[in-house]
Amino acid sequence: MTVIVSVKINDGIVMASDSASTFTNTQVYDHAEKIVNLVKGLPIGAMATGDGGIGSESLTTLLKDLGKRLADKQDSMYLDPSSYTMADVAGRVHQFLFAEKSMPSGGTANILLRVCGYSAGRPLPEVWQVQLQGAISYQLLLVHAETNFGINWDGQYDALNRLVLGVPTDLEQWATDWGMHQTDAHNLGAAIRQRAQETLAIPTMPIQDAIDLARYLVEVTMGFIKFSIGKQPKTVGGTIEIAAITKHEGFRWVQRQQFYPAGINET
Description:
The chain has one domain (about 5-155, about 205-265): Aminohydrolase, N-terminal nucleophile (Ntn) domain (Glutamine Phosphoribosylpyrophosphate, subunit 1, domain 1, 4-Layer Sandwich), CATH 3.60.20.10. The chain is about 30% helix and about 25% strand. The protein has six helices and 15 strands. The chain has helices at about 60-70, 85-100, 160-165, 170-175, 180-195, 205-225, and strands at about 5-10, 10-15, 20, 30, 35, 45-50, 55, 55-60, 110-115, 125-135, 135, 140-145, 150-155, 240-245, 250-255. The strands form four sheets. Strands 5, 6, 9, 10, 11 and 12 form a six-stranded antiparallel β-sheet that branches. A hairpin with a 6-residue loop joins strand 5 (about 35) and strand 6 (about 45-50).
């Protein structure tokens, strides 16, 4: 598991994540790359939560493999820089990971990806969701259209559900456990969220403030998981990675892990 956060404003999208990665044998590592610039030179990024890989390949390596195919004019996955849409990008991510990788490996992958960026020539970015859960082929989901703005999070989301929405994730289940009818419990949860939800971002927020907010939301989740006694699985941690995608600057790293020191890798 992990935590992934996006903040979408007028000036672009900020993507942030921790670097913990959980594999199907329950092993957790703290140095996974969860954010990837899918095509070098294009304003497109992807980040993921869930399984750290498919079969014998890590998710990071798979996304980088896909990136090479998206840039190869001779490949069926080729993405034309002059005419692509973010829907095209999300569709190729799903085809590659689900049809070409997960299903041949037994169809057991449990991964959720957020694909963020600008369609060719468009003034505002989009956020799409690609979900792999077993052998079910889920439809692509447009999380934030060009004209929608705000924050979004997934992975171990209870901390941010409490902070932003004002209620724990399983409020409705608690209510039914106490004897409330399921419909009434659902209505109660919706009413509390509507009243308690906190607005943390507005469309006109500067990109630096969006970066600061995304970092804060990941830090809150990491601290919540770290200090939770007994209730939260310890599968969030490691280094925080942040990238920003803007109309004119494209995909830019704000902070990331450095595995290969520049001083010993000069060419």
